[in-house]
Amino acid sequence: MAGRPELSSALRAIEGVTDAQAIGDSLAEPEAFAVLFDRHFDAVHGYAQRRVGPDLADEIAAETFTRAFDRRRRYDASREDARPWLLGIAANLLRRHWRSERRRLDAYARSAESEAGGDLAPPVAAELAAALRALPRREREPLLLLAWADLSYEEIGVALGVPIGTVRSRISRGRARLRGPNLDSHRPQEAPNNG
Q1: Per-residue pLDDT at 148
Q2: What gap in Å lies between CA 111 and CA 106, rounded to an integer?
Q3: Residues 19, 41: contact at Cβ < 8 Å?
Q4: Does residue 144 sit within a domain?
Q5: For the chain, how many structural domains are there in total?
Q6: Span 35-59, average pLDDT
Q7: Cβ pair 167, 96 in contact under 8 A
Q8: What range does the domain containing 140 cover?
Q9: Count of other CB atoms within 10 angstroms of residue 63
Q10: Whole-prediction pTM value?
Q11: What is the CATH number of the domain that holds 160?
Protein backbone atom coordinates (compact mmCIF):
# COMPACT_ATOMS: atom_id res chain seq x y z
CA MET A 1 0.00 0.00 0.00
CA ALA A 2 2.94 2.32 0.50
CA GLY A 3 3.43 2.52 -3.29
CA ARG A 4 -0.24 3.32 -3.92
CA PRO A 5 -1.15 6.53 -2.07
CA GLU A 6 -4.53 6.78 -3.84
CA LEU A 7 -5.51 3.35 -2.49
CA SER A 8 -4.37 4.25 1.01
CA SER A 9 -6.38 7.49 1.02
CA ALA A 10 -9.42 5.67 -0.40
CA LEU A 11 -9.24 3.10 2.40
CA ARG A 12 -8.96 5.85 5.03
CA ALA A 13 -12.02 7.53 3.51
CA ILE A 14 -14.00 4.28 3.69
CA GLU A 15 -13.02 3.76 7.33
CA GLY A 16 -14.44 7.16 8.25
CA VAL A 17 -17.84 6.50 6.64
CA THR A 18 -20.67 4.85 8.55
CA ASP A 19 -22.90 2.34 6.84
CA ALA A 20 -25.77 4.85 7.00
CA GLN A 21 -23.61 7.46 5.26
CA ALA A 22 -22.57 4.96 2.58
CA ILE A 23 -26.20 4.05 1.95
CA GLY A 24 -27.14 7.72 1.75
CA ASP A 25 -24.24 8.40 -0.62
CA SER A 26 -25.28 5.44 -2.77
CA LEU A 27 -28.56 7.14 -3.61
CA ALA A 28 -26.63 9.61 -5.78
CA GLU A 29 -23.59 7.40 -6.46
CA PRO A 30 -24.61 3.72 -6.54
CA GLU A 31 -20.96 2.59 -6.36
CA ALA A 32 -20.84 3.85 -2.75
CA PHE A 33 -22.96 0.84 -1.76
CA ALA A 34 -19.86 -1.32 -2.31
CA VAL A 35 -18.67 -0.21 1.15
CA LEU A 36 -21.46 -2.28 2.71
CA PHE A 37 -20.58 -5.29 0.60
CA ASP A 38 -16.91 -5.01 1.58
CA ARG A 39 -17.71 -4.62 5.27
CA HIS A 40 -20.50 -7.14 5.71
CA PHE A 41 -20.32 -9.81 3.02
CA ASP A 42 -18.34 -12.22 5.21
CA ALA A 43 -20.81 -11.88 8.10
CA VAL A 44 -23.86 -12.41 5.86
CA HIS A 45 -22.27 -15.29 3.96
CA GLY A 46 -20.96 -16.95 7.12
CA TYR A 47 -24.37 -16.78 8.77
CA ALA A 48 -26.08 -18.22 5.69
CA GLN A 49 -23.43 -20.92 5.31
CA ARG A 50 -23.96 -22.16 8.85
CA ARG A 51 -27.68 -22.36 8.19
CA VAL A 52 -27.88 -23.85 4.68
CA GLY A 53 -24.39 -24.79 3.53
CA PRO A 54 -21.88 -23.20 1.16
CA ASP A 55 -23.79 -23.61 -2.10
CA LEU A 56 -26.96 -21.86 -1.00
CA ALA A 57 -24.97 -19.38 1.12
CA ASP A 58 -23.51 -17.87 -2.06
CA GLU A 59 -27.02 -17.39 -3.43
CA ILE A 60 -28.43 -16.03 -0.16
CA ALA A 61 -25.56 -13.56 0.31
CA ALA A 62 -25.82 -12.29 -3.28
CA GLU A 63 -29.60 -11.93 -3.03
CA THR A 64 -29.27 -10.19 0.35
CA PHE A 65 -27.09 -7.44 -1.10
CA THR A 66 -29.23 -7.17 -4.22
CA ARG A 67 -32.37 -6.65 -2.13
CA ALA A 68 -30.57 -4.28 0.23
CA PHE A 69 -29.43 -2.20 -2.74
CA ASP A 70 -32.97 -2.14 -4.14
CA ARG A 71 -34.40 -1.13 -0.73
CA ARG A 72 -31.70 1.31 0.33
CA ARG A 73 -34.05 4.31 0.08
CA ARG A 74 -36.06 2.84 2.97
CA TYR A 75 -33.02 2.31 5.23
CA ASP A 76 -33.30 3.95 8.68
CA ALA A 77 -30.38 6.39 8.50
CA SER A 78 -30.40 6.78 12.29
CA ARG A 79 -28.78 3.33 12.47
CA GLU A 80 -25.09 3.68 11.66
CA ASP A 81 -24.45 -0.08 11.42
CA ALA A 82 -26.26 -1.88 8.59
CA ARG A 83 -25.22 -5.39 9.65
CA PRO A 84 -28.46 -6.13 11.57
CA TRP A 85 -30.52 -4.85 8.62
CA LEU A 86 -28.56 -7.03 6.18
CA LEU A 87 -28.81 -10.10 8.42
CA GLY A 88 -32.55 -9.47 8.73
CA ILE A 89 -32.85 -9.54 4.95
CA ALA A 90 -30.78 -12.75 4.89
CA ALA A 91 -32.98 -14.29 7.62
CA ASN A 92 -36.09 -13.54 5.54
CA LEU A 93 -34.50 -15.14 2.49
CA LEU A 94 -33.46 -18.17 4.53
CA ARG A 95 -37.08 -18.83 5.49
CA ARG A 96 -37.66 -19.98 1.92
CA HIS A 97 -34.92 -22.55 2.36
CA TRP A 98 -36.21 -24.27 5.49
CA ARG A 99 -35.92 -27.75 3.92
CA SER A 100 -32.24 -27.14 3.15
CA GLU A 101 -31.66 -25.78 6.64
CA ARG A 102 -33.41 -28.79 8.18
CA ARG A 103 -31.17 -31.13 6.16
CA ARG A 104 -28.15 -29.12 7.34
CA LEU A 105 -29.20 -29.45 10.99
CA ASP A 106 -29.71 -33.18 10.45
CA ALA A 107 -26.22 -33.38 8.96
CA TYR A 108 -24.82 -31.49 11.97
CA ALA A 109 -26.50 -34.02 14.23
CA ARG A 110 -25.14 -37.00 12.27
CA SER A 111 -21.61 -35.61 12.06
CA ALA A 112 -21.67 -34.68 15.75
CA GLU A 113 -22.55 -38.26 16.63
CA SER A 114 -19.53 -39.57 14.76
CA GLU A 115 -16.92 -36.90 15.47
CA ALA A 116 -15.08 -36.05 18.64
CA GLY A 117 -13.78 -32.58 19.38
CA GLY A 118 -15.30 -29.13 19.43
CA ASP A 119 -16.89 -27.47 22.44
CA LEU A 120 -19.54 -30.15 22.96
CA ALA A 121 -19.37 -33.91 23.33
CA PRO A 122 -20.74 -35.66 20.20
CA PRO A 123 -24.02 -36.83 21.82
CA VAL A 124 -24.65 -33.32 23.18
CA ALA A 125 -23.91 -31.69 19.81
CA ALA A 126 -26.26 -34.14 18.08
CA GLU A 127 -28.98 -33.43 20.65
CA LEU A 128 -28.49 -29.68 20.21
CA ALA A 129 -28.76 -29.90 16.41
CA ALA A 130 -31.94 -31.98 16.70
CA ALA A 131 -33.38 -29.56 19.28
CA LEU A 132 -32.62 -26.57 17.04
CA ARG A 133 -34.42 -28.28 14.20
CA ALA A 134 -37.47 -28.82 16.40
CA LEU A 135 -37.68 -25.21 17.62
CA PRO A 136 -40.39 -22.99 16.16
CA ARG A 137 -38.91 -20.53 13.66
CA ARG A 138 -39.79 -17.52 15.83
CA GLU A 139 -37.55 -18.92 18.59
CA ARG A 140 -34.86 -20.47 16.41
CA GLU A 141 -34.21 -17.32 14.37
CA PRO A 142 -33.21 -15.02 17.26
CA LEU A 143 -31.10 -17.77 18.84
CA LEU A 144 -29.18 -18.32 15.60
CA LEU A 145 -28.70 -14.58 15.09
CA LEU A 146 -27.30 -14.43 18.64
CA ALA A 147 -25.05 -17.49 18.35
CA TRP A 148 -24.03 -17.56 14.69
CA ALA A 149 -24.21 -13.91 13.65
CA ASP A 150 -23.04 -12.52 17.01
CA LEU A 151 -25.76 -9.86 17.14
CA SER A 152 -26.81 -8.16 20.36
CA TYR A 153 -30.43 -8.37 21.50
CA GLU A 154 -31.04 -4.84 20.18
CA GLU A 155 -29.52 -5.75 16.80
CA ILE A 156 -31.64 -8.91 16.63
CA GLY A 157 -34.70 -6.73 17.21
CA VAL A 158 -33.66 -4.53 14.30
CA ALA A 159 -32.96 -7.56 12.08
CA LEU A 160 -36.31 -9.17 12.83
CA GLY A 161 -38.33 -5.97 13.16
CA VAL A 162 -39.51 -6.74 16.70
CA PRO A 163 -39.07 -4.96 20.06
CA ILE A 164 -36.16 -5.94 22.29
CA GLY A 165 -38.59 -7.38 24.86
CA THR A 166 -39.88 -9.79 22.22
CA VAL A 167 -36.30 -10.77 21.40
CA ARG A 168 -35.59 -11.43 25.08
CA SER A 169 -38.70 -13.58 25.52
CA ARG A 170 -38.13 -15.56 22.32
CA ILE A 171 -34.51 -16.26 23.22
CA SER A 172 -35.53 -17.21 26.74
CA ARG A 173 -38.24 -19.57 25.49
CA GLY A 174 -35.89 -21.01 22.88
CA ARG A 175 -33.16 -21.62 25.44
CA ALA A 176 -35.67 -23.24 27.78
CA ARG A 177 -36.82 -25.59 25.00
CA LEU A 178 -33.22 -26.43 24.12
CA ARG A 179 -32.34 -27.46 27.65
CA GLY A 180 -32.23 -31.18 28.06
CA PRO A 181 -30.42 -33.53 30.38
CA ASN A 182 -27.15 -33.24 28.43
CA LEU A 183 -27.52 -29.63 27.33
CA ASP A 184 -28.15 -28.31 30.84
CA SER A 185 -24.62 -29.19 31.88
CA HIS A 186 -23.11 -27.06 29.08
CA ARG A 187 -23.88 -23.37 29.61
CA PRO A 188 -21.88 -21.00 27.41
CA GLN A 189 -21.30 -17.55 28.81
CA GLU A 190 -23.46 -14.82 27.35
CA ALA A 191 -21.60 -11.97 25.70
CA PRO A 192 -21.67 -8.86 27.88
CA ASN A 193 -23.24 -6.65 25.18
CA ASN A 194 -26.30 -8.85 24.80
CA GLY A 195 -28.22 -7.51 27.75
Answers
A1: 85
A2: 9
A3: no
A4: yes
A5: 1
A6: 91
A7: no
A8: 136-187
A9: 15
A10: 0.65
A11: 1.10.10.10
